[in-house]
Specification:
about 15% strand, eight-stranded parallel barrel, 2 domains, eight-stranded mixed sheet, TIM Barrel
């Protein structure tokens, strides 16, 4: 989902007019450039209509509000409405003063807004719910948690219906609703709140995304992207022993790198070795083929790839060598078209004969060290692990990634005892290589894996047993990207 929408932004290269917060104007400009859009900042009433006419979308941010710019906001918004182009309102600090509240409500009533992005306190103020205010920050009592998530979802949907706009609520858990469809995004790190521009940057990013496609899903993709790069930025801060001032720079760097990788995918194997970062990114929707698909195998795999599957594992138990090799070569060619890694389950011989990208090994299969000797340094080796000890042993043996599970009861392995969430978290914490969960995963129970540190989810029935495999893949990838 993220790659799809980043490429849409890059292809359309929207010019985004920002009437925004003076404190964060530089951050907003740079995040727009990093994602493939272009910024223009103009708030003089005498020119805003002319400037707006050149632009694909308009961001109105009331963070540093003054009466002169209220006129500019209304003029620019009306011009955008005439042109039928999207307008996003960021009602920073609404409820903190009469002027902010009056201005936000005037903008909502007089303009056709495509989206409203605010924290919980700001959205609560807009729907008329009482509460205290901390200025531009959400009140501690308003932080989004599992306990109040349903209330926040209902509030976002209520405002979306009332305003006919997409309502995007940012917090520890993010919520996006258009009144019909509601997305819950569990990405990001608490440290992101320590950089004053992060919220304004998010609004700018969303504006670029809805310029490319004005939809709740596009908005949710922007949230998922911001959360993902925020996680990477905090990791980089910790690695370099940097402080919060570096966070904005790291976020923009990661947006830029993600956009470039989306447009020109970096191979998982580069310079004769496995690129671990690229491999981690390719783990999101790991599709494992059921045994015995026969004539439906290739159409099924192609549908999964079209829907967004990011990794394919071919699993067969009863085929002879010639038939298995024939299937492997056909799937390999298909995966190459989509630039998606392809591995063979268990069978190192077939992996070598087909020159597959690698192999996935169970605990009863060949050790990772031996497989590495046979396949070489430039092949991906995955290993199933059920305990922390097995995970550490596999990593020491040269495994590039781990498959852990079964995390839920599964029809593909009836004798598999479901693994606890605590064990999954412990394995992810113990190793530095990517970890993908497998076993009984569906679009509805993915949420239970949130917060484990997983790089992705491996599915069989949730994909290949569905009547529309392509649509199932799209829905699964969306859930994975906004949850894990």
């Amino acid at each position: 989902m993220i790659r799809e929408y980043l490429n849409k932004v890059q292809r359309s290269a929207p010019l985004v007019h920002c009437i925004t917060n003076y404190v964060t104007v530089n951050d907003c400009a740079n995040i727009l450039l990093a994602c493939g859009a272009s910024p223009i900042m103009a708030d003089e009433p005498a020119e805003v209509e002319e400037i707006t006419s050149l632009c694909s979308a308009l961001l109105i941010n009331i963070g540093t509000l003054n009466r002169r710019t209220v006129e500019s906001m209304l003029k620019a918004g009306r011009r955008m409405n005439e042109l039928g182009r999207p307008v996003l309102l960021d009602p920073v600090g609404v409820g903190a003063s009469a002027l902010r509240t009056e201005t936000a409500l005037t903008l909502i009533s007089e303009l056709k807004l495509s989206a409203i992005r605010g924290n919980v306190s700001e959205i609560r103020a807009l729907v008329g719910q009482t509460g205290s205010s901390r200025g531009v920050d959400a009140c501690p009592d308003d932080f989004v948690s599992e306990s109040n998530l349903d209330d926040v979802k209902a509030m976002a949907a209520e405002l979306a219906v009332k305003t006919s706009a997409i309502v995007a609520v940012s917090g520890a858990i993010d919520v996006v609703s258009d009144g019909v469809n509601t997305f819950v995004i569990r990405r990001g790190r608490p440290e992101m709140t320590q950089y004053t521009g992060s919220g304004c940057m998010l609004s700018a990013l969303i504006t670029a995304f809805i310029a490319a496609e004005n939809s709740a899903q596009s908005c949710a993709a922007a949230f998922a992207l911001m959360g993902m790069v925020g996680e990477r930025a905090v990791e980089k801060m910790n690695q370099t022993e940097s402080g919060s001032a570096s966070m904005g720079k790291f976020i923009i760097d990661e947006i830029y790198k993600t956009r470039r990788a989306a447009a020109q995918p970096i191979p998982v194997v580069t310079d004769g070795a496995v690129n671990r970062q690229r491999l981690r990114e390719s783990m999101k929707l790991y599709a494992v083929t059921p045994c015995g698909l026969k004539d439906s195998l290739i159409p099924s795999v192609e549908s999964a790839l079209r829907g967004g599957a990011t990794f394919i594992q071919l699993r067969e138990k009863d085929l002879d060598t010639d038939a298995f090799l024939k299937e492997a070569l056909e799937v390999k060619a298909l995966c190459k078209q989509f630039n998606v890694p392809f591995v063979i389950n268990d069978n190192v011989e077939i992996a070598k004969l087909a020159d597959a990208d690698g192999v996935h090994l169970g605990q009863d299969d060949m050790p990772a060290e031996q497989a590495r000797q046979i396949l070489g340094a430039n092949k991906i080796i995955g290993v199933s692990a059920h305990t922390v000890e097995q995970a550490l042993k596999a990593q020491r043996g040269g495994a590039d990634y781990l498959g852990v599970g079964a995390v839920f009861s599964t029809s593909t392995k009836l004798d598999a005892e479901p693994m606890s969430k605590e064990t999954v978290k412990a394995i992810c914490s113990a190793v530095s290589i990517p970890v993908v969960a497998i076993g009984g995963i569906t679009r509805d129970n993915l949420l239970q894996l949130s917060g484990c540190g997983l790089s992705g989810a491996a599915v069989v029935s949730a994909l290949f047993s569905q009547p529309d495999i392509e649509q199932a893949a799209k829905e699964l990838l969306t859930r994975i990207e906004i949850t894990l």
